[in-house]
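Input record (one chain):
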Amino acid sequence: MLSSIYGRLRRAELDVLAAGLGVVLALALFPLRFLSSQIFIVTLPIILGVGCLLYLAAARGRGTTEGLPTLAPSLVRLISAGVFLGLAGMVVLAVIQGERSVLFMDLGGVVGTLLLGQILLAPDSELRPSVFLAEIIVYSFVVRFAALYTAPGYIGIDIWSHTTFVQMILQADSLSAISEVKYYASPLFHLLTAASTHLLGLSLRNALYLSVGVVMPLVPLLVYGTARLLVPLRWALTAGALYAMGDQVIRWGIHLIPTSLGLLFFLACLYCLVRITHASERWRDFGLLVLFSTAVILTHQVSSFIMLVVLFAGFAAQVLLRFDFFTEDPDPLSFSSGGSNPVNLAGLVGFNLGLIVFTWSLTPYQGDTFLETVINYLIVNLFNAGFLQGVGGSGGSAGASGAAGSAGQTFLSQLSTYVTEAGFLLLVFAGLIGCLTVLNRSRATQTTYTFVGAIVAMLFVVLGLPLVGIESFVPGRWFAYLYALLAIIGVLGFRHLANRTTFKVVGVILLLFVLVYPNVMIMSNDGAMDSPVFPNQHERLSYTEQELAAIDTYGSARSSQQGGELYTDLPYGTVWERTDAYPAEPLPVEDGRPVPQGITAYREYQSQSASYFPNEQDTATNLDPSKTEVCPPTTNYVYANGEVTICSLPGAN
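The corresponding structure, as predicted from the sequence alone:
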């Protein structure tokens, strides 16, 4: 009987079987929308069902179609000129307006649409990789550096801590200055920034921007190069463009911290891994993979764990492909080139796992080693886990900033959430089609199964575990890494649809991507933390000159203060705390209104845009308090610069 079942499964196509199970799973998950309005719970069952049904329909087409239509060569060249003209207009807007305004975002969305549409519809004779890659890279630079150089200070929260660490290293001229910090054993980002400051003779800020900041817009080249090993030129360019426009990719291009550098090294590891498993087995590629994986471990803990997940997926793929059940004669429409013989990755996995454990055992963190702290934290989370425990409201996890919104969900808050997550959901849809495509036995290679395994594991971490309240793996940091896998495997799925379905089907899907994806990605809160498109729904994580001047001026008097903390909104208080300017705490709220404390900082932004204060349930609430509510006339005004006022209660230090 077992042999009969095996025989039936052996004759069945894995991709069709997986698509059928996906439809069943989508139907089973659909009722969860009645338990929670969280965006992923509402949308993912629909995406899963539609994607699987579309693939099943495409699987019935055994022949090939004519693929995509093409534009006239003259029109392609005209669009190229329009893209560069639009990019120049974006630069002018940023300079004149002094920020990435809504108009800047709108123009960026139009340019992205032209760029993506041009790649998909250009005739083969006009597919000039140098021109299209130049458009992608210039687009990346304009979007990122328009943010970096219009914001007076740094963008983000953690960057203030990391630049403080770099300053400590520069002052002490030794790594021992951060011996009690968890980056003592992973100092590559801080050493690189400190060295750049010395060698370039610039301020720390400019040195950071002209070292790590210059490199980050180039990461789409690594995605393009990886995809080029698997698919023809058109689709590799599409993967690079999709990645360049990703909100989470933009995020780590303007919030320059070890995650950014870790992402760069991770993508280099991914490229080397695909070369090893698909294009070659040269010792040079193994050596480069060991080099870049070591660099990841010495840069960022979360990045090294993500890299380990991908390597484990590659090792699992190696084991699976030893069985005839998963292999068949190759399909000529599968890939551009490459073999299907599995490559032994056991030694590489063992080396990286050992180095990670060794490094984390030496890393100080919260009075213990990083390894022990993470394990203890994970155990506590496992015991406190509960179904839908980590779900609240209609927000998504990709753009979580650590502050919860108000209880009532307004139309604007829902619109903000859907705009923020729409691009990611489109990528998930593309990745679903791609994963189903490569599950076909005739397309089974170690590379494709590595991608499928890594995508499933990473989606489980970023979407599954948070549902039960487990966020020990810092899921918000995984998205930019996941985007690369989804973009590469997604274009493989698009290519399959273009060759196996009618133009009406694939045309609608690609038109949706071309029109929607660039626009929602550039307006997403995650990619616009310096200047949110929805300022009343998402906090601005950059600061004006007056807001930074208040920190510098009042913080310089800290030595004369005798104890106490400064109370203000989130996220403004994090800058005071992380720059060691002054001990800061969130200003508490009672009955929906702020309660002035000993020393309180008010800024005009609190009354105009999203700023957060903890209420009686210790939940951060978005309020718009007036100046008199934060600093009543009965308090003493001890500092004011037009935008920021610092007041103290009578008798306070």
